[in-house]
Design brief:
Blueprint: E1 5-10, H1 12-16, H2 20-29, E2 33-40, H3 44-50, H4 60-67, E3 72-78, H5 82-90, H6 103-107, E4 116-118, H7 122-132
Antiparallel strand pairs: 1-3, 1-4, 2-3
Helix pairs in contact: 3-4
The chain binds adenosine-3',5'-cyclic-monophosphate (CMP).
The site of adenosine-3',5'-cyclic-monophosphate has 7 residues, from loops.
């Protein structure tokens, strides 16, 4: 993936609250195309692997519990400058600091239950997407 892709998850809190459709609409209206998408649930072990960079931090255990607590929507989305533009679309990690109109401002419950994940670098987008999607599950250039 080369700068035009990022990885996202709609987190268990937002799925449970019924925000999946609205969040996907915001992503599409934000100019992103969906390359891959699945409705799935992480095991505790998978959530530990996904968030291994945060291992040892005080919020790690509860983050892993939360992220494996229910279904999520995982997706690869594309757009020029995808990683940075997606982070602008979703807003700051802490929804209290997220700009008006951003996905987290609209749908997040708290710092941990912040509605969506967005990769923080091209390298992490590639790594995170590889946890969820094979090459055969990715579709590009269909629009
Ligand atoms: P995300 O973008 O998925 O990346 C790591 C996640 O850890 C973050 O969103 C939050 O859900 C969570 N997180 C980050 N910092 C904290 C914190 N200080 N306390 C609780 N959860 C946090």
């Amino acid at each position: 993936m080369n700068g035009n892709y990022t990885f996202t998850m709609i987190k268990p809190c937002a799925v449970k609250a019924g925000f999946t459709g609205r969040i996907l609409a915001d992503i599409l209206e934000g100019g992103f195309d969906i390359v891959a998408m699945k409705f799935t649930r992480m095991t505790r072990e998978q959530a530990e692997t996904f968030y291994s960079v945060h291992q040892g931090k005080p919020f790690f255990e509860s983050l892993v519990d939360f992220m494996s607590s229910g279904p999520i929507v995982a997706a690869i989305v594309s757009k020029e400058n995808a990683v940075a533009d997606f982070r602008t679309l979703i807003g700051a990690t802490n929804p209290e600091n997220a700009a008006e109109g951003t996905i987290r401002r609209k749908y997040a419950e708290s710092l941990q239950r912040n509605a969506v994940h967005g990769s923080d670098s091209d390298e992490n987008a590639t790594l995170e997407a590889s946890h969820f999607f094979s090459g055969f599950e990715r579709f590009q250039g269909y629009r």
